[in-house]
Structures are given as C-alpha cells and as structure tokens.
UniProtKB/TrEMBL annotation:
CDD domains: CE4_HpPgdA_like
Organism: Roseovarius aquimarinus
Domain of life (superkingdom): Bacteria
Record protein name field: Chitooligosaccharide deacetylase
Biological role: Is involved in generating a small heat-stable compound (Nod), an acylated oligomer of N-acetylglucosamine, that stimulates mitosis in various plant protoplasts.
Amino acid sequence: MAHLVCITVDVDNTSAMLARGYDGRAMLSRGEFGVVGTSRLLKLFAKHEMKCTWFVPGQTLVSFPDSMAPVVADGHELAVHGWTHRQPIAMSEAEEEDELIRAGDEIAKFQGKRPIGYRAPSWEPSWATTRLLAANGFVYDSSLMADDYTPYYPREGDVHPVDGPLQRGLPGSVLEIPVSPTLDDFSAFEIMRGPDGSVLPGLRSGRDVLENWLNDFLWMRQELAKGVMTLVVHPHVIGRGHRMIFLETLILKMKEAGALFSTMAEAAERFSPRVDG
C-alpha cells in the first residue's frame, strides 16, 4: 500500500478570530486574506492534479460562498469544522450537536452530498464528540493525537483517575485520522497575541519547516508498511507568497519520495470498510 499524504485545509478565515472575541478591523482583515489564500491553493492543487479535504466552518461557508464554490467545482472534499469556530470542549452537548448538524446540513446543500468527515475547531473535541459523530452518520474524525501515521478507533468511556491507572473503554465506530501541531502551518508560521499579552511567536523559516515535514514523511516510508500523514494548512496563513513556494517545494519533494496525495475520505476508505462513497 502506498504511503498517503493528506494536505488538509482548515478554512477558518474570520471564524477563528470571532470565536476568540477578536472583532477589530485589522484582525478580521487577516482572516479575510483567506479568500486570497484559497484562490492560490486551488491553483497550486490543480497544477499538481491533487484533490484535498477542506474543513470549513459553517460561518466561513455562508460568509464567503463565492470563495468556496470553486473548491467544490474543482472536485475537492468538504468536511465539517464546526458552525462557529468555538471549541466543543467549551460547549454543552446539545450546543455541540446543534453546530454539528447545522454545519453538516449547510455543506450538504452547498456541495450536493452530506459530509462524512469532521475536525474539531482548535483540535478540542469534547468527550461526547465521537459519539455525536457516530449518531449523525460521520465516518471519520481528524482531531486527536494518540498515533501519528496509523488511523485508529478512539475508545468511548475511558476513565482517567488522577492517582490511578487509566480505565479503558471500548473502541468506537468513528475512524480517527490523527493530526499533530508539528504538522500544522499555524503553529509554525502565525504570530498571535493573546488577551493576557502572551504571544504565539510563529514566523519560522520555511526551510526549517520543510525539513521537518519532509523528514516526517521519509520516516513513515522507511519504518511503516502503510500509513497516512496529515498536514494542516490554513489559507490565511499558508497563502503568503514565500509560504506558497515552501508548500510547492514540499509537494515536489514528497512526490519524488513516492508520496500518494489523497483526500481524507479516500484515506478513510483504505483503512475502514465503513466508507461506501
């Protein structure tokens, strides 16, 4: 089996800023740059004949439909990334399910078929998330980190005592295609200041990130018979000129090393017989 690479696109645009209470004009303009970045990513993916998965909040979809329509027209997969970009861990179960259903309905209307994938905003699912996904017909999630290259079925019903051993529940029915902050452009490149004055420094050199991400793929190819490497990019982050050069260089080097690029739905199909198209 080929070693898969999924370049996934989190189309946050202004939704992440709004969910964190940032409503200043300059900050929201940084998010709106995602429209420019989306156009650049589509051009790059078309050049390399790649289909990718775009995790889109409902707020992004209804706010920027003209930007998202070409994503569907080019044959990419849309998946749910919440309705707002609020973290499920901070919601009630009813609020979380309402956002999940509302976003799924909007995507189904937009692309003509129901989405089968989900990623929690900020990778902060609740303990109810995978259960809610299963109840609402989702096939895969991409929010957790208990593995790196091997999709797995997260357990339901774990108990985590502070002073005792983990009490394991049973595997659920939603396939996890894991993620990592080490393979995320936001962690590497974006600079943000928190309400408490803390700063996410970002602004790393693309050369360093290229070396790290490529070596992650090379290790997977060397050590594992099969696997899925999940990269996470955001149009408003990766869409800057020098980062687009970095991304294309990465694609070319991974192709030379034997990578097969795929959507998350295609990756899930290879690992899970539950995907029926």
